[in-house]
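FAQ
Q: What does a multi-component entry look like?
A: The components come first, one per line:
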Amino acid sequence: MVNEEIRKGPWTEQEDVQLVFYVKLFGDRRWDFIAKVSGLKRTGKSCRLRWVNYLHPGLKHGKMTPHEERLVIELQSKWGNRWSRIARKLPGRTDNEIKNYWRTHMRKQAQDRKRTLSPSPSTSNSSSFESNNPPVDSMPFMETQERSFYDTGGLEMLAPRGKNTKQEDQKEMEKGYSLDDIWKEISICEEGCNLSSQTMTSPIWNHFPDMLSMMEQEESTIFVPNMTDQFFAGYEQFKSSTLTAGL
DNA sequence: AACCTATCCAACCGCCTTGAT
DNA sequence: CATCAAGGCGGTTGGATAGGT
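Then the predicted structure of the entire assembly, as C-alpha coordinates:
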Protein backbone atom coordinates (compact mmCIF):
# COMPACT_ATOMS: atom_id res chain seq x y z
CA MET A 1 0.00 0.00 0.00
CA VAL A 2 1.15 3.48 -0.78
CA ASN A 3 1.28 5.11 2.57
CA GLU A 4 0.58 8.72 1.67
CA GLU A 5 0.60 10.98 4.68
CA ILE A 6 -2.33 10.12 6.89
CA ARG A 7 -3.81 13.12 8.59
CA LYS A 8 -4.28 12.95 12.32
CA GLY A 9 -5.59 15.29 14.95
CA PRO A 10 -8.59 17.56 14.99
CA TRP A 11 -10.94 17.56 12.04
CA THR A 12 -11.46 20.73 10.07
CA GLU A 13 -14.88 22.03 9.15
CA GLN A 14 -14.26 21.20 5.53
CA GLU A 15 -13.25 17.65 6.35
CA ASP A 16 -16.46 17.28 8.30
CA VAL A 17 -18.55 18.53 5.42
CA GLN A 18 -16.73 16.25 3.05
CA LEU A 19 -17.21 13.24 5.27
CA VAL A 20 -20.89 13.91 5.83
CA PHE A 21 -21.37 14.19 2.12
CA TYR A 22 -19.72 10.90 1.34
CA VAL A 23 -21.37 9.05 4.19
CA LYS A 24 -24.68 10.24 2.91
CA LEU A 25 -23.70 9.08 -0.49
CA PHE A 26 -22.34 5.65 0.35
CA GLY A 27 -23.80 4.82 3.75
CA ASP A 28 -21.90 4.34 6.96
CA ARG A 29 -20.44 0.93 6.46
CA ARG A 30 -17.59 0.99 4.03
CA TRP A 31 -15.30 3.27 5.92
CA ASP A 32 -12.11 2.42 4.14
CA PHE A 33 -13.82 3.01 0.87
CA ILE A 34 -15.25 6.31 2.04
CA ALA A 35 -11.85 7.35 3.30
CA LYS A 36 -10.46 6.65 -0.14
CA VAL A 37 -13.07 8.18 -2.38
CA SER A 38 -13.57 11.25 -0.24
CA GLY A 39 -9.99 12.27 -0.70
CA LEU A 40 -9.72 12.78 3.03
CA LYS A 41 -6.28 11.79 4.15
CA ARG A 42 -7.79 9.89 7.05
CA THR A 43 -8.08 6.23 7.86
CA GLY A 44 -11.42 4.53 7.59
CA LYS A 45 -11.33 4.07 11.29
CA SER A 46 -10.83 7.73 11.87
CA CYS A 47 -13.70 8.57 9.54
CA ARG A 48 -15.99 6.18 11.31
CA LEU A 49 -15.08 7.59 14.68
CA ARG A 50 -15.65 11.13 13.56
CA TRP A 51 -19.02 10.20 12.14
CA VAL A 52 -20.16 8.14 15.08
CA ASN A 53 -18.99 10.49 17.78
CA TYR A 54 -19.60 13.86 16.27
CA LEU A 55 -21.20 14.14 12.86
CA HIS A 56 -24.12 11.77 13.12
CA PRO A 57 -27.35 13.76 12.77
CA GLY A 58 -29.06 12.03 15.65
CA LEU A 59 -26.47 12.98 18.19
CA LYS A 60 -27.25 15.09 21.19
CA HIS A 61 -24.54 17.41 22.30
CA GLY A 62 -24.48 19.09 25.63
CA LYS A 63 -25.03 18.23 29.21
CA MET A 64 -26.48 14.94 30.28
CA THR A 65 -29.95 15.24 31.73
CA PRO A 66 -30.48 13.95 35.25
CA HIS A 67 -32.41 11.09 33.75
CA GLU A 68 -29.52 10.18 31.52
CA GLU A 69 -27.10 10.48 34.38
CA ARG A 70 -29.18 8.10 36.40
CA LEU A 71 -29.32 5.67 33.52
CA VAL A 72 -25.61 5.74 33.02
CA ILE A 73 -25.03 4.98 36.64
CA GLU A 74 -27.54 2.22 36.73
CA LEU A 75 -26.45 0.60 33.51
CA GLN A 76 -22.81 0.88 34.36
CA SER A 77 -23.38 -0.89 37.61
CA LYS A 78 -25.40 -3.49 35.76
CA TRP A 79 -23.17 -4.10 32.76
CA GLY A 80 -19.84 -2.65 33.73
CA ASN A 81 -17.84 -0.75 31.15
CA ARG A 82 -19.86 -1.95 28.19
CA TRP A 83 -20.09 1.58 26.88
CA SER A 84 -21.47 0.80 23.48
CA ARG A 85 -24.18 -1.31 25.01
CA ILE A 86 -25.03 1.41 27.48
CA ALA A 87 -25.03 3.95 24.67
CA ARG A 88 -27.73 1.99 22.88
CA LYS A 89 -29.99 2.70 25.78
CA LEU A 90 -29.37 6.41 25.58
CA PRO A 91 -30.45 7.54 22.14
CA GLY A 92 -28.32 10.40 20.91
CA ARG A 93 -25.42 9.63 23.19
CA THR A 94 -22.27 7.90 22.07
CA ASP A 95 -20.20 5.37 23.90
CA ASN A 96 -17.36 7.84 23.91
CA GLU A 97 -19.48 10.52 25.47
CA ILE A 98 -20.80 8.22 28.14
CA LYS A 99 -17.35 6.89 28.83
CA ASN A 100 -15.99 10.39 29.24
CA TYR A 101 -18.89 11.37 31.40
CA TRP A 102 -18.46 8.39 33.62
CA ARG A 103 -14.78 8.98 34.04
CA THR A 104 -15.05 12.61 34.99
CA HIS A 105 -18.23 12.66 37.00
CA MET A 106 -19.06 9.30 38.37
CA ARG A 107 -15.73 8.01 39.41
CA LYS A 108 -15.14 11.18 41.29
CA GLN A 109 -18.51 10.87 42.94
CA ALA A 110 -17.87 7.28 43.79
CA GLN A 111 -14.59 8.19 45.36
CA ASP A 112 -16.20 10.96 47.35
CA ARG A 113 -18.89 8.62 48.50
CA LYS A 114 -16.34 6.04 49.46
CA ARG A 115 -14.53 8.60 51.49
CA THR A 116 -17.57 9.94 53.30
CA LEU A 117 -19.38 6.68 53.87
CA SER A 118 -17.70 4.01 55.87
CA PRO A 119 -16.61 1.41 53.37
CA SER A 120 -18.88 -1.62 53.39
CA PRO A 121 -17.47 -4.19 51.02
CA SER A 122 -20.68 -6.17 50.57
CA THR A 123 -22.75 -3.34 49.07
CA SER A 124 -22.45 -2.38 45.43
CA ASN A 125 -21.96 1.25 44.50
CA SER A 126 -25.36 1.39 42.86
CA SER A 127 -27.67 -0.13 45.40
CA SER A 128 -29.42 3.11 46.15
CA PHE A 129 -30.28 3.65 42.51
CA GLU A 130 -31.55 0.19 42.04
CA SER A 131 -33.84 0.42 45.00
CA ASN A 132 -35.21 3.82 44.09
CA ASN A 133 -35.68 3.46 40.39
CA PRO A 134 -37.55 1.14 38.08
CA PRO A 135 -35.53 -1.47 36.23
CA VAL A 136 -33.79 -0.04 33.23
CA ASP A 137 -35.44 -2.40 30.82
CA SER A 138 -38.84 -1.03 31.67
CA MET A 139 -37.88 2.55 30.90
CA PRO A 140 -40.32 4.01 28.38
CA PHE A 141 -37.84 5.29 25.84
CA MET A 142 -35.59 2.29 25.77
CA GLU A 143 -34.45 1.05 22.46
CA THR A 144 -35.34 -2.55 22.16
CA GLN A 145 -33.18 -3.42 19.23
CA GLU A 146 -29.56 -3.96 19.94
CA ARG A 147 -28.59 -2.04 16.84
CA SER A 148 -26.74 1.09 17.55
CA PHE A 149 -28.79 4.20 16.88
CA TYR A 150 -26.09 5.73 14.80
CA ASP A 151 -26.39 3.24 12.03
CA THR A 152 -27.63 5.39 9.23
CA GLY A 153 -28.28 2.87 6.60
CA GLY A 154 -25.44 1.87 4.43
CA LEU A 155 -25.93 -0.67 1.72
CA GLU A 156 -26.93 -3.29 4.21
CA MET A 157 -29.60 -1.20 5.89
CA LEU A 158 -32.74 -2.61 4.41
CA ALA A 159 -35.60 -1.35 6.51
CA PRO A 160 -35.87 2.29 7.46
CA ARG A 161 -35.84 2.82 11.17
CA GLY A 162 -37.66 5.54 13.00
CA LYS A 163 -35.53 8.46 13.95
CA ASN A 164 -36.49 9.67 17.37
CA THR A 165 -33.78 12.18 18.02
CA LYS A 166 -34.50 14.82 15.44
CA GLN A 167 -35.94 17.23 17.95
CA GLU A 168 -32.59 17.53 19.61
CA ASP A 169 -31.19 19.39 16.64
CA GLN A 170 -32.66 22.61 17.86
CA LYS A 171 -30.06 22.80 20.57
CA GLU A 172 -27.35 22.83 17.98
CA MET A 173 -28.59 26.18 16.73
CA GLU A 174 -27.29 27.79 19.85
CA LYS A 175 -23.77 26.79 19.03
CA GLY A 176 -23.37 28.85 15.91
CA TYR A 177 -22.11 27.09 12.85
CA SER A 178 -22.40 23.45 13.69
CA LEU A 179 -23.64 20.04 12.73
CA ASP A 180 -27.06 21.30 11.98
CA ASP A 181 -25.66 23.72 9.52
CA ILE A 182 -23.68 21.02 7.87
CA TRP A 183 -26.84 19.02 7.45
CA LYS A 184 -28.58 21.99 5.95
CA GLU A 185 -25.76 22.24 3.50
CA ILE A 186 -26.22 18.66 2.56
CA SER A 187 -29.84 19.38 1.79
CA ILE A 188 -28.85 22.31 -0.33
CA CYS A 189 -26.44 20.17 -2.21
CA GLU A 190 -29.02 17.51 -2.71
CA GLU A 191 -31.33 19.97 -4.32
CA GLY A 192 -28.56 21.03 -6.56
CA CYS A 193 -27.52 17.49 -7.33
CA ASN A 194 -31.01 16.06 -7.70
CA LEU A 195 -30.46 13.66 -4.86
CA SER A 196 -33.38 12.51 -2.81
CA SER A 197 -33.69 13.87 0.68
CA GLN A 198 -34.02 10.34 1.95
CA THR A 199 -30.62 9.23 0.84
CA MET A 200 -29.69 8.08 4.31
CA THR A 201 -32.29 5.37 4.43
CA SER A 202 -32.50 4.90 0.72
CA PRO A 203 -28.94 4.68 -0.45
CA ILE A 204 -27.53 6.28 -3.49
CA TRP A 205 -27.85 3.07 -5.41
CA ASN A 206 -31.53 3.76 -5.87
CA HIS A 207 -30.64 6.83 -7.82
CA PHE A 208 -27.62 5.50 -9.59
CA PRO A 209 -28.21 1.79 -10.01
CA ASP A 210 -25.15 1.43 -12.20
CA MET A 211 -22.82 2.98 -9.71
CA LEU A 212 -22.36 -0.08 -7.57
CA SER A 213 -21.19 -2.33 -10.34
CA MET A 214 -19.08 0.50 -11.59
CA MET A 215 -17.40 0.74 -8.24
CA GLU A 216 -16.91 -2.97 -7.91
CA GLN A 217 -14.99 -2.82 -11.13
CA GLU A 218 -13.10 0.27 -10.36
CA GLU A 219 -12.26 0.34 -6.71
CA SER A 220 -8.69 0.90 -7.73
CA THR A 221 -9.47 3.72 -10.09
CA ILE A 222 -11.53 5.52 -7.56
CA PHE A 223 -14.77 7.03 -8.71
CA VAL A 224 -15.16 10.50 -7.34
CA PRO A 225 -18.41 12.14 -8.26
CA ASN A 226 -17.69 15.57 -9.63
CA MET A 227 -20.66 16.91 -7.74
CA THR A 228 -18.27 17.71 -4.92
CA ASP A 229 -17.42 21.01 -6.54
CA GLN A 230 -21.06 21.83 -6.74
CA PHE A 231 -21.44 20.72 -3.18
CA PHE A 232 -18.74 22.96 -1.88
CA ALA A 233 -20.06 25.83 -3.91
CA GLY A 234 -23.36 25.36 -2.15
CA TYR A 235 -21.57 25.00 1.11
CA GLU A 236 -19.70 28.26 0.74
CA GLN A 237 -22.84 29.99 -0.41
CA PHE A 238 -24.80 28.75 2.52
CA LYS A 239 -22.05 29.56 4.96
CA SER A 240 -21.77 33.15 3.82
CA SER A 241 -25.51 33.59 3.78
CA THR A 242 -25.90 32.30 7.31
CA LEU A 243 -23.03 34.39 8.53
CA THR A 244 -24.42 37.56 7.03
CA ALA A 245 -27.81 36.68 8.46
CA GLY A 246 -26.15 36.92 11.83
CA LEU A 247 -26.18 33.29 12.82
C1' DA B 1 -2.87 39.57 35.87
C1' DA B 2 -0.50 35.35 36.15
C1' DC B 3 -0.19 30.92 37.36
C1' DC B 4 -1.96 26.37 38.71
C1' DT B 5 -5.33 22.72 38.82
C1' DA B 6 -9.37 20.34 37.46
C1' DT B 7 -12.46 19.13 34.02
C1' DC B 8 -14.09 18.23 29.48
C1' DC B 9 -13.98 15.91 25.30
C1' DA B 10 -12.12 14.77 20.65
C1' DA B 11 -9.17 11.64 18.86
C1' DC B 12 -5.94 7.86 18.80
C1' DC B 13 -4.33 3.14 19.94
C1' DG B 14 -4.52 -1.64 20.32
C1' DC B 15 -7.12 -5.68 20.83
C1' DC B 16 -11.00 -8.50 19.59
C1' DT B 17 -14.67 -9.98 16.50
C1' DT B 18 -16.68 -10.78 12.20
C1' DG B 19 -17.18 -11.63 7.46
C1' DA B 20 -15.20 -12.52 3.01
C1' DT B 21 -12.23 -15.27 0.26
C1' DC C 1 -10.58 -24.57 7.74
C1' DA C 2 -7.17 -20.80 7.58
C1' DT C 3 -6.08 -16.27 6.60
C1' DC C 4 -6.72 -11.50 6.20
C1' DA C 5 -8.92 -7.06 6.19
C1' DA C 6 -12.26 -4.07 8.08
C1' DG C 7 -15.18 -2.78 11.67
C1' DG C 8 -16.27 -2.34 16.55
C1' DC C 9 -15.11 -1.49 21.19
C1' DG C 10 -12.85 -0.10 25.50
C1' DG C 11 -8.90 2.25 27.31
C1' DT C 12 -5.96 6.13 27.16
C1' DT C 13 -3.98 10.53 25.90
C1' DG C 14 -3.48 15.36 25.17
C1' DG C 15 -5.15 19.96 24.09
C1' DA C 16 -8.47 23.46 25.34
C1' DT C 17 -10.81 25.83 28.71
C1' DA C 18 -12.93 27.04 33.10
C1' DG C 19 -12.31 27.93 37.81
C1' DG C 20 -9.57 28.85 41.82
C1' DT C 21 -5.70 31.04 44.27
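Q: Is there any commentary attached?
A: Sometimes. For this entry: Confidence is low (pLDDT under 50) at residues 118-177, 193-223, 238-247 of chain A.
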